[in-house]
Amino acid sequence: MSKGLLIVLSGPSGVGKGTVCSALRQRVPNLTYSVSATTRQPRLGEEHGVNYFFHSHDEFLRMIAEDQLLEHAEYVGNYYGTPRNFVEKTINEGRDIILEIEVQGALKVKEKFPEGIFVFLLPPSLDELKDRIQGRGTESQATIDHRMSVAVDEINLLEHYDYAVVNDEIDSACKRIESIIIAEHCKINK
Amino acid sequence: MSKGLLIVLSGPSGVGKGTVCSALRQRVPNLTYSVSATTRQPRLGEEHGVNYFFHSHDEFLRMIAEDQLLEHAEYVGNYYGTPRNFVEKTINEGRDIILEIEVQGALKVKEKFPEGIFVFLLPPSLDELKDRIQGRGTESQATIDHRMSVAVDEINLLEHYDYAVVNDEIDSACKRIESIIIAEHCKINK
């Protein structure tokens, strides 16, 4: 049996990673979704191993020390990370796994897992991205300007990725990502 | 405008290159098909530039000398070849072009045009290939054995290609080739 693939889907905040990932679930049903580890408390209805792997602070620090995470970051006082184990188990069983992650995290994953397929989701244009960020209607002008400047810096990291997919329409973007997965399985000398 | 791609579809005789190519015409309508040059006489209804580029023997020799062909071969007293010009014009116009060709020819094209995408069409199994060759019902046992041995030698050249596509069902094979084309267009640092 041949190994599965790790597909890392990344891109600037506001580009629609989450929406595209949800749509991919429908389109490519036999794709596994990477489950993150976290130190934050489970919310009502959240299950260990489904929504997150919930760990204590000490357990998380031990996982970092033992190199059990492909990347990790701190966010509002809690740790979040990608367990290497879950990814490796899935691909060793011959199943593909997709990881949706922001740009800096994806580049850290690439250091530890260079055989992954790194896909960068692009907005159709910077104007369109600005519209999407503004469209949420919750941000001040200063915040929007800051997020746009971060997005531009992130798009400049495109060259570290394998594929660029423009998120012009969700269906088209999903078809391109599905095509990338099919093509990668046909590759000789991966 | 970005350049088009040259997709070279190859594989052993009997694997179904022609059938898959015809089905692709329906599935991917904006794909151009490479037109061969030949010294053989046009048959009734054949048009220059549509079915073949028809050339005199002298013209063909001059095209070889001037490196105007990506590959050429002699077959029952006539020359056949792939005009470089037609391929380059098409991809410079931003359109993809597909070339259906036997294995040795494909490897010659690769020498002159390494930026092409080389796709090897595989039978689901060697037994299945034998069935397909026998199924034509026109060959002696010795011919079938010879063709099977050539096919095995050709399949051993797989490593020189970029992608392997199993022709289990025409629709699936076409979807894989279409996916390869879409994915190649998404590639960063081609």
From TrEMBL, chains A, B:
EC number(s) per entry: 2.7.4.8
SMART domains listed in its UniProt record: GuKc (SM00072)
Pfam families: Guanylate_kin
Superkingdom in the source lineage: Bacteria
Main location: cytoplasm
Assigned protein family: Belongs to the guanylate kinase family.
Protein name listed in UniProt: Guanylate kinase
Species the sequence originates in: Paenibacillus cucumis (ex Kampfer et al. 2016)
